[in-house]
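Fold it.
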Amino acid sequence: MSIMPSVPVLRGRKNTSLQLDGSVLVLRVREQEHRIPLAAVAQVRSERRSVEVVLTAPHGSRPVVHRLDDVGEAAADAFAGAVNAALPDGSGPAVDGSALVTVRTLDDERRKVRLRRAIRLGWLAVILVFTGETVLLTLTDDAEMIFLIWMCGPLGAACVHVGVRLTPFGKPAWRLPRHGVTVVAQYDGYHDGMHVYAFTDLSGKQYGYTPPGYQGDTVEVVYDPRDPFSGTERSMLIGRSTLLIPLIIFGGLGGLMLLLILLMIPAALFA
């Protein structure tokens, strides 16, 4: 039985990487992940320590090229050979490969990981503090205070937890009013049961916005330049300050409960 060689994962400068994931090339550049179907790839070129992914393009137009530098020379040659051998037959009409590429922002995923880690550490700290306070209060035989800690303490911590989970700072609705790019989207027709409005980002790449219904020939769309797929109608954005209301209510209530419990413990110990 012959063993197929593994397709290497290419890692370049400034935390960039390129790998083959089934029938998709995954290119990570800074805070973005580009998923490039093999159907969108014309060829992969390797030149010493650089690799270029050339996308398909209609006849007469200039193809989009993604480049990765400072990779291993042997790995680059092996990667290019493996991907080129896996490319579909290009006998049909050439399509615009860039239109098949999907882009997502990795910063949101990393923020979610950091948030989950902070929440776990926060709960661990709360449990350790309450346990230590319970041990101290057993010296005073103050059963009522111990009961209060384990009844109101977790409730206050849960309110803080909900407030943190509702924090809006990484969400498009928070970023778009201040950091978004506003463009005029043109009505592109009714496709697959949806009214589609087309707009282009700062690099000229076209994206689509699908509102709940027909909004006229043009609409103002605001999108995150890091993730143009997040485009939404400008009139549908609510004020940034209103997004803080759940955080203020839950976080403030929980924080106040925890503070009152912490202040009551020294009074019980030294009474």
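Residues 223 and 231 are 4 Å apart (CA to CA).
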